[in-house]
């Protein structure tokens, strides 16, 4: 069952005497139950708008938006107790302490002080919990925002750039926290521009560009689908190797210390045969590594090109 | 719902602006109490009668020319005074010999004082209402609350309720403190004459109507700031509307004053039909009119809030 189901979601922001901004342009997305789902996209691609529509903070211009089986625009109150969320930098009451902020929100859903203390401990804010929020750093505010999202012990977590403002240690902690939450069977829907984080944390990913989903699925599948299928070839004499490959009808590209061959890994045998035929021996032959970043740039860059 | 209301009340009470306003109010009330005490004096009725008679004798002697008066402690050359028996002489002597001001603090004047302090309390209530929702928009706490309680009308009306309750309580406490601060002057340096049951009822009426007006001001300030998503917007609009538009319209179109917010507020606080020269407006109708304005603006703010996107 999908915990988030977006169909043809469109959101336009009207402007005075100017054409409207199309933030979401018929977005279709399905987020399955359980695990960590990464929501990737460049700035202005519509990630935060999507999250706002999910949480009924923004009204879609068209399309359907279902969360935990209900229409988020009309029936969100039925399921809000099972959804923890953080939208951008969390809005907190600066005059109150972190603990007080959590306690007052928790009371709305009947959550007591024990749960507040536990969640503060979990995000590493227990020691500063009784300081006013106005004295918190950006990273501490971000942690408190995550604590607010976790306080309901939610089935679905919707987090918008949770690693923003965190130091490397904090980013690592959040990564482990998200993985742990996903492993517990919860669904974590996390938007991020930190591609390496998504690659390390998420089971599935969707890539958003110009308000549309341009790729979605398990991280490995997206990598495989979006990335190139080349081979990395390393040998002693790169120039001679390149000439041997060309003679065999195989195109290659000379890089700093290796050759890039535009053949799928299944055809690696053609490379070894052509080189051995010329008395050249390999020191390394492997499929080219594809990073999510490369796929992301390829997918979103291509889309930018179309738009222009 | 109760938890939401309790939370909103606590948030309003935790605001630094409310603490500053409370400190200012306490300081102002203390100063008012001390100054009133220092500027009043305990005299008996007999002493007052004697002082009045002495003043009358001084005036008569001045008019007759038998006792040249002094002005600012200095004698005046009788040749330079108007001739005895003339109207100018009588006017001069009334001024120079002086009447007798009653130096006592009369408790019955408390009613007028409380009516006078309603105006600044209305401004404070407007400020409380506007700043609470304005800062919620600015700090995006409204977004956080909506991720816990998505029923927008409920959230906004609960916030408005918290503002109204706090502003009303602030006004009542300030008026009560002011009354207490003036009591030493009334009992030690004054008189409680006339402060009977009817007077007490009229004072309670002033308090009740004043608090009602404060509650409406808080709701209006809240609504305007909510629509504009900004405290400054509410303060600017309030300033422009009341000081410019209502003042101008009220000055040039007297018949129209009964349809202005200020005109109705004056009638309500005065407690008199057509009070403050607002012709054709009774106190109950003024109360209903102002309540309708407050509820109407709150309804518009709620409608706008339900439809708009929240960042």
TrEMBL record, chain A:
PANTHER family: ABC TRANSPORTER, ATP-BINDING PROTEIN (PTHR43335:SF4). Belongs to the ABC transporter superfamily. The lineage of its organism: Bacteria, Bacillati, Actinomycetota, Acidimicrobiia, Acidimicrobiales. This is Efflux ABC transporter, ATP-binding protein. Residues 4-235 form the ABC transporter domain. PROSITE patterns: ABC_TRANSPORTER_1, ABC_TRANSPORTER_2. Coiled coil: none annotated. GO terms for molecular function: ATP binding; ATP hydrolysis activity. Keywords: ATP-binding, Nucleotide-binding, Transport.
């Amino acid at each position: 069952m999908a915990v988030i189901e977006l169909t043809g979601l469109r959101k336009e922001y009207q402007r005075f005497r100017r054409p409207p901004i199309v933030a979401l342009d018929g977005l279709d997305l399905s987020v399955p139950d359980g695990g960590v789902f990464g929501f990737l996209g460049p700035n202005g691609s519509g990630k935060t708008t999507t999250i706002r529509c999910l949480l009924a903070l923004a009204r879609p211009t068209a399309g359907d938006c279902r969360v935990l089986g209900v229409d988020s625009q009309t029936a969100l109150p039925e399921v809000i107790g099972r959804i923890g969320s953080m939208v951008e930098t969390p809005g907190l009451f600066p005059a109150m302490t972190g603990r007080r902020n959590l306690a007052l929100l928790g009371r709305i859903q009947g959550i007591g002080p024990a749960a507040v203390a536990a969640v503060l401990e979990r995000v590493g804010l227990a020691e500063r919990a009784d300081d006013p929020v106005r004295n918190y750093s950006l990273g501490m505010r971000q942690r408190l925002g995550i604590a607010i999202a976790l306080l309901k012990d939610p089935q679905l977590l919707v987090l918008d750039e949770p690693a923003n403002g965190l130091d490397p240690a904090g980013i690592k902690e959040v990564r482990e926290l998200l993985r742990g939450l996903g492993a517990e069977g919860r669904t974590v829907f996390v938007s991020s521009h930190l591609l390496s984080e998504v690659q390390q944390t998420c089971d599935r990913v969707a890539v958003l560009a110009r308000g549309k989903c341009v790729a979605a699925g398990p991280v490995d599948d997206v990598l495989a689908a979006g990335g190139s299928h080349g081979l990395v070839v390393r040998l002693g004499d790169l120039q001679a190797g390149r000439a041997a490959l060309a003679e065999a009808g195989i195109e290659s590209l000379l890089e700093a210390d290796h050759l890039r061959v535009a053949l799928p890994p299944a055809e690696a045998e053609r490379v070894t045969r052509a080189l051995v035929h010329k008395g050249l021996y390999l020191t390394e032959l492997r499929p080219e590594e594809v990073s999510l970043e490369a796929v992301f740039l390829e997918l979103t860059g291509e889309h930018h090109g179309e738009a222009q | 719902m109760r938890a939401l209301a309790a939370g909103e009340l606590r948030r309003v009470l935790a605001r630094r602006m409310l603490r500053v306003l409370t400190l200012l109010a306490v300081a102002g009330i203390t100063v008012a109490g001390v100054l009133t005490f220092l500027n009043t004096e305990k005299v008996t009725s007999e002493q007052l009668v004697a002082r009045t008679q002495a003043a009358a004798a001084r005036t008569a002697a001045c008019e007759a020319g038998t006792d040249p008066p002094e002005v600012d402690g200095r004698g005046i050359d009788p040749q330079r005074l108007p001739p005895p028996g003339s109207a100018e002489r009588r006017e001069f002597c009334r001024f120079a010999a002086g009447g007798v001001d009653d130096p006592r603090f009369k408790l019955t004047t408390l009613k007028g004082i409380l009516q006078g302090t309603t105006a600044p309390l209305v401004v404070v209530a407007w400020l409380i209402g506007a700043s609470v929702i304005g800062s919620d928009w600015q700090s995006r706490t409204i977004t956080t609350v909506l991720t816990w309680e998505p029923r927008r009308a409920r959230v906004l009306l609960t916030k408005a309720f918290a503002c109204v309750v706090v502003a009303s309580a602030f006004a009542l406490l300030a008026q009560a403190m002011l009354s207490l601060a003036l009591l030493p002057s009334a009992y030690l340096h004054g008189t409680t004459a006339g402060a009977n049951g009817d007077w007490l009822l009229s004072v309670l009426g002033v308090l009740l109507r004043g608090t009602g007006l404060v509650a409406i001001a808080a709701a209006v300030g809240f609504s305007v700031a909510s629509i504009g998503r900004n405290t400054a917007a509410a303060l600017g609009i309030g300033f422009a509307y009341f000081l410019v538009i209502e003042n101008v319209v009220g000055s040039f179109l007297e018949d129209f004053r009964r349809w202005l917010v200020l005109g109705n507020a004056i009638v309500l606080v005065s407690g008199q039909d057509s009070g403050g020269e607002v012709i054709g407006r009774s106190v109950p109708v003024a109360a209903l009119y102002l309540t309708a304005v407050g509820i109407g603006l709150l309804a518009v703010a709620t409608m706008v809030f339900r439809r708009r996107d929240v960042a």
